[in-house]
Amino acid sequence: NIQTENGAVGSAAMGTLSGSFQLSIDTTVSTANSVHGSFISASIPITSTDEMLKTILENVPNVGEVEVESLEPLRWQVTFLSEVGDIDVSLAVNKVVDTEQNAATVAIAKTVDAMIPTKAAYGSQRLGTDDVTSMA
Fold this sequence. Notes:
mainly beta; four-stranded antiparallel β-sheet; 1 helix; 8 strands; about 5% helix; disordered C terminus
């Protein structure tokens, strides 16, 4: 879950929030991930739609496919679909402020650890045109 908060403990922000934040996504914590690395996302406006957040996250080199669902305004649930190992997500840059320019809190919480489905078939091979034969 990614959530921006105003009036939260440790945050002096009140009123309307604006700005953006960036996430650090680290896939080096598990050997099961296909791309290992630690990368920072592009700026994520707090006004992002589900589709905007999905696009921003999927453009991070080590992310793959994600599903994004707005749980309520300024709160998203992100499910990583194509990485099968554990992923660390943390706040890299916080530029979210209120109308008085007080910093707001961006909270990130892992709700479920990564798992490989029991009947999954990972390790498949990508076929190119040289690998396909005609049945004519």
